[in-house]
Specification:
The complex is a heterodimer of chains A (509) and B (154).
Chain A lengths: L4 H11 L2 H19 L5 H8 L8 H26 L8 H12 L3 H34 L4 H18 L4 H15 L2 E2 L6 E2 L13 H20 L17 H23 L5 H15 L11 H25 L5 H12 L6 H6 L1 H24 L1 H7 L4 H20 L2 H19 L5 H24 L10 H40 L1
Antiparallel strand pairs in A: 1-2
Chain B lengths: L2 H22 L13 H22 L15 H23 L1 H15 L5 H22 L14
Classes of the chains: A mainly alpha (509), B mainly alpha (154).
Amino acid sequence: MNVDFGMLYHSFGNIFTLNVMFLIVVGVTGGIVVGALPGLTATMGVALLIPLTFGRPPVASLSMLMGIYTGAMYGGAISAILIRTPGTPAAAATILEGYPMCKKGMAGSAMAMSLFSSFIGGIIGCAIMIFMSPLISGFALEFGPVEYFALAIFGLSVIISVSGRSLVKGMMVGFFGLLLSSMGLDPISGYPRFTFGFSELMEGPNFIPTLIGLFAVSEVIANIEKMLKTEKVKAKLNQYLPSWSEIKRSTGALIKGSLLGTVIGSIPGAGGDIAAFVAYAETKRSSKTPELFGTGMVEGVAATEAANNSCQGGAMIPLLSLGVPGDAVTAVLLGAFVIQGLQPGPLLYKDHMDLVYAIFAAMIVAQFVMQFVGMVGMRFFAKVILIENAILMPMILVLSMIGSYAMRGNVFDVGLTIVFGIIGFLMQKYDFPLSPILLALILGPMAESNLRRALVISGGHASILFSRPIAIVLMVLAVTFLVLSIFTHNKIEKRLAELAVKDDDMTLT
Amino acid sequence: MKFADVVSGMIGILIGVYIMIQCQSYPEDFVMKIGPAFFPEILAGGLIVFSVLLILLALLGKSIGDFQKLSVREKGTQRVLIAVVVMIVYCAVLKPVGFIIATIPFIMIFMFLLGNRNKLQYVWVPVAITLAVYLVFEKLLVLSLPGGLLSSFL
């Protein structure tokens, strides 16, 4: 399958209607706000805003979702630069150069560059997505149950290997998440499993309430425990676009960041946070003045922000063409797609070609809207991140409760949200990563039904799982990622230990 | 040794064992031997293996990370417990009392728990949030929220 430009052109016509444009602007603005607010990750933001898309026609609702996603990926940079707190994990690398720039009085320049590079990264990511995903979906049409099972296992092992500090805990969470996904009617025989007698659990724990509980309510509870104080900020925002010389200086970083971001984003399980750190490291390594990094280099901001926004296009590739989410945020998006009655995967290209192109068009439009809204609203967003926790958190809580209620009009789902809020809070407190659960909920049913289908075909012989080359490659990669992660975890622990020592020194002197 | 890791491992094992026991009662497929119990049993096995590993690592003193103890005597833990109780009460009264009446005091309590001591804010913030959410969901998105006691007025 190749790109159908006529279709793309036609899709822009569907997007440029007053109604859809309005929804994209609202989505982008909402996305930037939740992305910028420290404590609201992009995952949580998208989950909280999904109820806003209920009950709209698919094109409108998907466009709004794309807007939310785009805005949220950028928003994190604002708080990373201004108050040294990443609004989203993907913006953590932006702190490295963005905050020093802010301290040097160059906040305006850092903000302008982060917005511009997010825009460039977003556009490059979209372009690659538009060319690659039809190709991959054509390729994936030949995938059988064995490949899909391997793909699900691969996605899960990647997210387990990159999240959290302990592989053992990550694996526990992975299995726990898969068990959660097996609740409800068995996909093949239809036998109800682990429903505890609740008819509401027949289809398993409902995705949106589970998600909102794990990612939003847990965060509110953590805030209640620690009572974090909001920081004050004083920064001069006097620049909306980076200067020409800054752009010229950062061209290399922009391109490298965008390409790295798209590639890393397209790996199922790996997301914007990794992409940003890799792009930063690469820019620093190839710079003529690596020793100046950490003191406020505009290239650093350009690389990290281009990377985390281009990741969006990358992550959409496996989501649209394989039905496998690229990271936690796209896992949430996948849930939203399913609510709209759409099952992403190769068949989406066959049956709903128009919608796929509408998504492409909406994503491109959303990038432009982001650049525009970001410039117009820069001062406003800089103020929003200062909103007091004592007001913000109750607001998130009410939105969580009502968001989970609204989907089915069911109080049971509110209870579910609270239960998962408590589980999420305890897990985070004791260093269990949450994202594997999210991916497991999406990939679990896919893994199970394909595994069983494959075994039915082979008559119960497990050897069939290793009979197809693509599946073998994916399995080997999955194991490699997990094994490698033990070493990286050790490295991170060492570095953390060094940092802790340094911090102690600082407090002593 | 990290006590928390041992406890988490125990919980993992308990969940795994519970699943295993439940799976015994599930119907088996005599032809394929792959019934509804097949996948959960593998998963429960995996969960138990890694839970045991976590406990072993903890006993060998190789736990990673530092965490605070969860003690009822701590102020933070008490606040969390209150918050959880308030959430459960909210969930229980949401339908009979209705969204608007239940949400205003709910927000006030959480503002207090989060350390807000600005009296004026208690007056307008809960009302503003409640009305905004109500208007967006009920009027803009046309999703119905529980009316409860006020349902005849709305």
